[in-house]
Amino acid sequence: MKRIGIVDTTFARVDMAYYARRALAGAGTGIKVLPATVPGIKDLPVACRRLFLDGADLCLALGMPGKAEYDKTCAHEASLGLIFAAVLEAKPVVECFVFEGEAADDKELETLARRRAEEHALNAYSLLMRPRDLARRAGTGLRQGFADVGAVRPTH
Amino acid sequence: MKRIGIVDTTFARVDMAYYARRALAGAGTGIKVLPATVPGIKDLPVACRRLFLDGADLCLALGMPGKAEYDKTCAHEASLGLIFAAVLEAKPVVECFVFEGEAADDKELETLARRRAEEHALNAYSLLMRPRDLARRAGTGLRQGFADVGAVRPTH
Amino acid sequence: MKRIGIVDTTFARVDMAYYARRALAGAGTGIKVLPATVPGIKDLPVACRRLFLDGADLCLALGMPGKAEYDKTCAHEASLGLIFAAVLEAKPVVECFVFEGEAADDKELETLARRRAEEHALNAYSLLMRPRDLARRAGTGLRQGFADVGAVRPTH
Amino acid sequence: MKRIGIVDTTFARVDMAYYARRALAGAGTGIKVLPATVPGIKDLPVACRRLFLDGADLCLALGMPGKAEYDKTCAHEASLGLIFAAVLEAKPVVECFVFEGEAADDKELETLARRRAEEHALNAYSLLMRPRDLARRAGTGLRQGFADVGAVRPTH
Amino acid sequence: MKRIGIVDTTFARVDMAYYARRALAGAGTGIKVLPATVPGIKDLPVACRRLFLDGADLCLALGMPGKAEYDKTCAHEASLGLIFAAVLEAKPVVECFVFEGEAADDKELETLARRRAEEHALNAYSLLMRPRDLARRAGTGLRQGFADVGAVRPTH
Asked: What is the pTM of this model?
């Protein structure tokens, strides 16, 4: 039994954790979810570290930075914190951020957030349970939330 | 009994700690405040770490960066330091910054600082005492100091 | 007896440490200064850490970044390093930087550097010896080197 | 027998690890490769740290940031994480990033990614097995993926 | 006998380590050099940490970032890494970077790199062997590679 911490925020405008949990449940068995909710993305790094200390083998950090320039700075700080927490614990943190400005309207935002949360959840699943699935797709231009761009060409 | 460190600055132009303490007192019992005041926002990270070593379970870091471009850099540095201190100690630091440039005049600045300090204080309270309150509001587009933007739509 | 490390640079164009020491001496007794001089501001963080290991209870880091765009980057790196050193040691580092571009001419630069060094030295003194002095001035809009801007209004 | 961790991503559009492994195999014997694949470049730092804990003596981190402005931010965050992981473990991480925008079309991207992966793999080999090869070429203006620019002049 | 680690890169276009070693040899006795060469500036921080673990008392990190905007980002990352390594080990890292764009042509680049390497080598020597030499020149506006700008005025 592997444990995945899933941390989300009250700042986000879509319940990304719902989609992530659903995708994980569909991916296979052998996963237990440790949930946590924090106010905003800057609160994610320490929440991940705490879930690691509670036994998580990997954390999925879900966030939705706003549209303002300052929100980009906050996302940058949060990202550095997530990398720091992951390296410190030597356990993966899968960052899943959706910037409000990436979508043209609310509907598109919901769709993008759902798809990205699902695809990053599957990445988290692969990292923990099926690393060979990732190895097989190395260098193939995968994207999360948008269409994959694909490999430049089949190389060898 | 949980302990919340509240650190503020002499640089800020509003007594944000007053509003934070008042909001905490109104939120419920079982909280003891450990106060500290430092000159500016860059002094907040180490002050938080020191309060953690003195027994704080969470720190609320209150600051008010000025209007100049350089103040944004200082806020960025302070934010990274706060995240670093939180991850290192594995205890939450709730950052509550109000940029002077966010408000049109002094009155608006006072109101914004008061509201944001109160709402972040309540977040701090929830993180420590009622994590389920945060979980229930995950993905609902909450904001601190301004009106909440709300969820994109009720999702499920 | 408390020990304050004072680190300055050969890059600066004003002997800021002289003014800082003089201000400390005037502030009260019970302080011993541990001095160090390094080439530039990026050398300050490790110098502070070394002074902490030598027994300093707080470090005052004095620097004067130049006018070029690159100097701002160096100051940013130095600031992050100072915050890192402070958090790591759980002891305060009071950063006192004067950007050459803040002053119109040499005379103004000297005056600004003197005043800021003095006022940050007094902040350092308060942090170590009279924390209540800082608490009393929380949220009152203090500035170092320029006139204080004051609180938005007497709040309560 | 030395061990080199090679980490690549599913985000990249070229199988850089293939070229890196081939170059390593051609460089000499005495190297064992520990492979890992992660979703994107921000996942590289923790993957390196994990390979170090599994016995790697050096890690080669292969990534291909996209063309958007945000991808530059991600690359910056990943780079800082790689440096942090390397310093923490006191073992080298050779970063090999190819920005999609560096190449005019897919063919050029493939060629650039192949060459840079090969040349960084040889750098990794030299760092571990033949440090004197690097010492001999100090200050000679080597580049990876593009033509070397050479030394300013034979100096002494 | 003090040990100075000198790390340079194959990316640089001038053999800065040659000039640094020569300047150190001319500065006095009692210094042993521990040399290392890495591919690029981002490899410097971990190389310094490794030399510290091998017994270095100080490291001189020599690098020459290119002219492109991206090179500035790399230099920034390398600088942060050097500060991190220095603080972590509590031993000085003297950074000596020459940006290719600082010089108008190859000849000027060679001269600038030589002078800056020599002057930073002397700084390294002073830090280890004659800290009072630095203290005497505190606040006197020294520069490395260009003419000193001097103190604003003799102050006291």
From this structure: 0.97
